[in-house]
Specification:
Blueprint lengths: L4 E9 L2 E6 L2 E7 L4 H10 L4 E6 H6 L5 H10 L3 E5 L5 H9 L4 E4 L1 H5 L1 H11 L4 E4 L3 E2 L5 E2 L13 H10 L4 E5 L12 H10 L4 E5 L5 H9 L4 E4 L1 H4 L5 H8 L1
Parallel strand pairs: 1-4, 1-12, 4-5, 5-6, 6-7, 7-10, 10-11, 11-12
Antiparallel strand pairs: 1-2, 2-3, 8-9
Helix pairs in contact: 1-3
Protein name: 1-(5-phosphoribosyl)-5-[(5-phosphoribosylamino)methylideneamino] imidazole-4-carboxamide isomerase
InterPro entries: Aldolase_TIM, His_biosynth, HisA/PriA, HisA_bact_arch, Isoase_HisA-like, RibuloseP-bd_barrel
Catalytic activity: 1-(5-phospho-beta-D-ribosyl)-5-[(5-phospho-beta-D-ribosylamino)methylideneamino]imidazole-4-carboxamide = 5-[(5-phospho-1-deoxy-D-ribulos-1-ylimino)methylamino]-1-(5-phospho-beta-D-ribosyl)imidazole-4-carboxamide
Amino acid sequence: MSDFTLYPAIDVRGGRVVRLRQGDYAQETRYADDPLSVAQRYARAGARWLHLVDLDAARVGGYTLAPLLSAIKSATSLQVQTGGGVRSEADVQSILDAGADRVVVGSLAVREPARVKEWLRWFGSARLTVALDARQSADGRWQLPTAGWTEDSGVELEALLSDYMAAGLQHLLCTDITRDGMLSGPNIALYRRIVDVAPQVQLQASGGVRDVGDVLAARQAGCAGAVLGKALLDGRFDLSNAFAEVA
């Protein structure tokens, strides 16, 4: 895939850049106090896109990062996909109005797919990224937790993905929750499976990326992009070099 996008990620909780292990709010690593400065650093390294997450809102609703989003858009040329706590059409509109290029919808996309499919038609599929973040059960099924990955929805990945494909889904972000923040490598087998089922969807790999090799493996698997989180914050690889390798 020639047009492969790297999405450096900034997860914000309590106004600070943090990372969670496997989505567990009790296992938080704190990084910079100033998310804007991190975004500017990624922009200087050559990033075109930023993945911005409101972790506080992901659990309780009420997106809080509009001022930060506006500041990032004013201070950089980054395109931003962002979400956390999106519960209504008004939430989507307000995030777009604050400058988002794409709004990420996660828990609601699992709990109320009929509403989100209507949003794909209303706002346009190019303006929404549906996040179907999965955890594999003991019997091998890929299930979709909600509420910041803290609640079991009872919904399975492939069944819901099929519904969204029929509704014109364009951008899908999928995280293997067990690998998120673990630096254990992305789940390439899962991504190959999704690409086989939904080849027309622009799939973003997320969770476990350690180095440029993992990025290239995701591209080889058919992904359209990869979200880079803990490995960047820990300084495990250079973002500028990653862009050169992908190019």
